[in-house]
């Protein structure tokens, strides 16, 4: 029998639940864990670092990665559990996509796109973004998304039975 993992995420309205993974869920957890820890999703992007558009693209790609994993393993990783306080890989992955990533991306993609449309030809993308009055706000909100993704990636690591590989300083405190 698989051992259970308590899942607690910093999402408004999300209650602590239990996840007792089956073999397929463990494999799926490892695959998604690798996707998360190799992106900006769990690494802090400090002021002046990186390009905001690239961060949005990276975060958006988690949708594609998750869909591929869900399709690959099928319904065995998404079936409801017998206990109402127990969840599946499918349930958690959809919660992350729809309650964490989607709201952030649907808010910031059009706002950033509108600002990008005003960039002059002789101004670099980085220089243009650094001058943006909403740069700090977008990064702050990205940090909130990151916090949940670090918690989630640490949960996936526990399910996959590996030590979390994130290099993020506050990942040690996230789960």
Polypeptide structure, described:
There is one protein chain. With 175 residues, the chain is mainly α. The chain has one domain. 55% of the residues lie in helices and 3% in strands. It is built from five helices and two strands. The longest helix has 28 residues, at 89-116. It is elongated and about 60 Å long. The model is unreliable at 168-175 (pLDDT under 50).
Task: Give a brief description.
Helix 1 packs antiparallel against helix 2 (52-73), helix 1 runs antiparallel to helix 5 and helix 3 (89-116) packs antiparallel against helix 5. The chain has a two-stranded antiparallel sheet. The chain contains five helices and two strands.
Instruction: Tell me the count of domains.
Output: 1
Structural class: mainly alpha
Residue share in helix: 55-70%
Task: Describe the sheet with the most strands.
Answer: 2 strands, antiparallel
- Across the major sheet, the strand order is 1-2
Q: Strand percentage, roughly?
A: under 5%
Overall strand count = 2
Oligomer: single chain
> Kindly, what is the distance between the CA atoms of the first and last residues, rounded to a whole number of angstroms?
23 Å
Low-confidence stretches: 168-175
Average of the residue pLDDT scores = 90
- Counting DSSP H or I runs of 4 or more residues, the number of helices is 5
What is the H/E order?
EEHHHHH
Shape: elongated
Radius of gyration: 17 Å
